[in-house]
Design brief:
single chain, alpha/beta, Luciferase, domain 3, GMP Synthetase, Chain A, domain 3, six-stranded mixed β-sheet, four-stranded mixed β-sheet, 16 helices, 33% helix, 22% strand
């Protein structure tokens, strides 16, 4: 890059640290963050962020360096994200649910100069017995460090293309990868939320989902950059979440598969429950039983967000659609998001015909900056100058898009490709089904066949009834060869709520064909 181009790039850039400073100057006394009894205005938050930024600089952490955090949701998480943003450092958001080997991998992958650790996880860091840079214990140690640091605005060069945070992918097929989200991508996602997701300046957000995933980290940054308030809940707690739903007008109440049924029960237990206004609720409708979509939106009195995005892309490419409150939709077609481009391609990266399944390839400003220290993966996934999402979709004549399944999990039966989600949607359409997951089983005749595991809402539901439903709408080769009833607790999920098929398919291989019920708890 020439000196001239470099100067032009600097002039055209915008960073999250600059956005926070703007809000602190514009509305210093406006509420910014609530974390239990702790409440900060924008002016107070910016001062604490500056103190942390100066402490990072004192630790020789600057542009391009990594600083990790291992913590439940708390005020300090947000302070670190903005402080790192002001000095050009990159926050690696560690998943506290990981096993020791997985956690070790995530830390070693990014080589942080410091790790901020909540009290509950200090033992885990000590147990790893590894050099992870400076250890900063959240609590008294953290507050003492801030108290010794300057509160002035740090004068550091930070460009829009610089990394802001590393969010680890769920790792359902291997060890987690670190997706690098730049300032450019984060702010593009913020403005995309305004265009497609009804976000307005000053809206509030309740951060209950883990901040080590985009559902809380990205949306919290977005809301603060636009002058809204973030209410922090350490982790999923149905009663605390219901309290917030009753008292905090919200832009978007994030809901995850696997917790919606529990939240429905908690809402119904609350005497005289009336929600504060909520613009949108929900995410990932394809993974949620249809009856739950109707029940939760009726209780919350708001539409369900029919999203289709990812850590790598943000809410795009297909998250502009809505499901009306109180309805169980017959189909879950997605509406393309504005501000980006997409293609549906075959294995040779040629565009597929309308109605044919193809892998989603995307371009746009919300896109991440690749996986940390993974050149081969990046070369493959960004081939041709498009990011290949790994999801298979079909384009409908009306311009909407139907999700089919993941590229990396496909059942090949007798030369035919079977996408499990197609079968799961049929099973979930029965109101007596709570959850369903379809996996492959090796078969001597066909190579692989589909097998289904079902959680029932009503014990009267039989295998024959479900098989009849499948026969009515699915081609013969797509129908599950066995259906097993299991308890909800037996389903193996990633931290984002996605079913871990590779874990469950081991059950399919262990069962006797023709058996209709198994013990997995």
């Amino acid at each position: 890059m020439t000196h001239e181009a470099d100067l032009i790039g600097q002039a055209a850039g915008l960073t999250v640290g600059a956005m926070l400073l703007h809000q602190a100057r514009l509305r210093p006394d406006h509420p910014a963050v609530e974390d239990g009894a702790r409440r900060l205005s924008f002016g107070q938050l910016n001062v604490r962020v500056n103190r942390l930024a100066h402490h990072l600089l004192a630790l020789e952490i600057g542009r391009g360096d990594r600083v990790a955090i291992l913590s439940e949701n708390r005020l300090e998480y947000l302070e670190l994200l903005f402080a790192a943003g002001k000095v050009g450092a990159i926050v690696a958001a560690l998943n506290w649910r990981l096993s020791d080997p997985e956690l070790r991998h995530c830390i070693e992958l990014v080589s942080p100069k410091a790790v901020l650790v909540a009290p509950a996880y200090l033992a885990a860091i000590a147990r790893l017995g590894m050099a992870a840079g400076e250890i900063v214990a959240l609590g008294d140690d953290y507050e003492a460090r801030l108290g010794r640091a300057a509160n002035t605005e740090p004068q550091c060069r930070v460009d829009a293309k610089d990394g802001l945070m590393i969010l680890y992918t769920s790792g359902t097929t291997g060890l987690p990868k670190g997706a690098v989200i730049s300032h450019r991508a984060q702010l593009a996602r913020a403005f995309s939320s305004c265009v497609d997701f009804e976000l307005a300046a000053g809206d509030s957000f309740v951060a209950w989902a883990p901040m080590y995933h985009m559902a809380s980290a990205e949306q919290s940054i977005t809301v603060l950059c636009l002058g809204g308030k973030v209410v922090v809940i350490p982790r999923y707690d149905a009663d605390r979440l219901v309290d917030a739903i009753e008292t905090v007008p919200q832009w978007w109440l994030v809901l995850m598969p696997g917790m919606i049924g529990d939240l429905i029960d908690a809402l119904r237990r609350r005497s005289g429950f009336v929600p504060a206004p909520i613009k949108l609720a929900g995410a990932m409708a394809d993974l949620v039983p249809r009856h739950q979509l109707a029940e939760i939106t009726a209780l919350l009195r708001t539409p369900y967000a029919n999203t289709f995005g990812s850590t790598e892309t943000g809410l795009p490419p297909f998250s502009a659609g809505r499901i009306a409150a109180g309805t169980a939709p017959k189909r879950l077609s997605k509406t393309p998001s504005a501000g980006g481009r997409y293609r549906l391609v075959d294995p040779d990266d040629h565009d597929v015909a309308e109605g044919e399944p193809g892998e989603v390839a995307v371009r746009g400003p919300t896109l991440f900056s690749g996986y940390w220290n993974a050149p081969e993966t990046n070369a493959h996934d960004f081939r041709g100058g498009w990011f290949h999402l790994g999801d298979v979709c079909r384009r409908r004549p009306d311009g909407t898009v139907d999700f089919v399944d993941r590229v990396k999990y496909m059942i090949k039966s007798g030369g035919e490709n079977i996408y499990p989600a197609e079968i799961e949607r049929v099973l979930l359409a029965d109101p007596r089904v709570e959850e369903a997951v379809v996996v492959r089983r090796i078969d001597a005749r066909w190579g692989e066949v589909p097998v289904a595991f079902v959680v029932r809402r009503d014990d009267s539901l039989t295998v024959d009834e479900l098989l009849a439903r499948c026969r009515a709408v699915l081609a013969g080769y797509k129908r599950p060869k066995d259906i097993f009833f299991i308890g909800a607790a037996a389903l193996s999920r990633s931290t984002t709520g996605k079913i871990q098929r590779h874990e469950i398919e081991r059950w399919a291989s262990a069962q006797n064909p023709g058996s209709s019920q198994i013990e997995t708890e």
